[in-house]
Amino acid sequence: TSDSPSGWYVAQSTVNIGRVTVTGDIHLILTDGCKLDTMSCINVGKGNSLTIYGQTEGTGTLNAINGDPDGTGIGSDDGASGNITINGGTITVRSEMGAGIGGGFGGMNMNNLMKQAQKMQKQMAEKQEELAERTLEMTSGGGAVKVTINGKREIQELKINPDVVDPDDVEMLEDLIISAMNEALRQVEEMYNNEMGRLTGGMGGMF
Questions:
Q1: What would the pLDDT profile of 23-75 be if each residue is shown by its tens digit?
Q2: Measured distance CA(11)–CA(141) in Å, rounded
């Protein structure tokens, strides 16, 4: 039996563990090719949470098997389960008679796991700083309106071709400006999603 406090954990290679009790908010990353087998349940009681991520889709595996007739594979034996979220990986959960999912990690080197999680968090912070300094240019109306935006979603520059400034049709100019600004914001969001997705192996938003 092992208690797992709040934090990020990374499962690597093949690991067999016993019963685990989640305390606080646990984030578990299943790396490519890993296999995490629990010989009993992963207990997630009320007020606690377990979120599972796959490094890439359908790779790392987690098998939570509970032989207790009244137990659960992942959750709580007393029926008052905490929050359980699965964002990736291949998960197999089974209980003899209780719920498969409904409400940790002894046996692994926690120091190494925490170092891995801290390394990833540092890389993500560095990437966010890098993206914040990038600039993107978007146009509308065939280049009549050009917007320059940075990764902080701040408008750096707005240029309007004088030829499209028609005092009798201000609404058209307004539409062109709105279109260029919305596209700029969309591109910044897409840039963040793509870059952070590459870094986290498709875990997205989590961070």
A1: 888 888 878 778 877 766 777 777 888 888 777 655 677 766 665 544 556 76
A2: 51
Q: Under a CB-based contact definition with an 8 Å cutoff, are residues 156 and 133 in contact? A: no
Q: How many CA atoms lie within 13 A of 5 on its CB side?
A: 3
16 beta partners: 37
- Rounded CA-CA distance 68/95 in Å is 7
Q: Which two tokens stand for residue 81?
A: 């389960």
Residues 6 or more apart whose Cβ sits within 8 Å of residue 30: 11, 36, 52, 53, 54, 55, 59, 60, 61, 62, 88, 89
Q: How far apart are CA 51 and CA 73, in angstroms?
A: 15
pTM of the model: 0.43
- CB half-sphere exposure, 162, CA atoms < 13 A: 0
Q: Which two tokens stand for residue 24?
A: 């606080």
CA 189, CA 99: separation in Å to the nearest integer? 39
CA distance 89 to 60: 5
Q: Pull the structure tokens for residue 115.
A: 């170092």
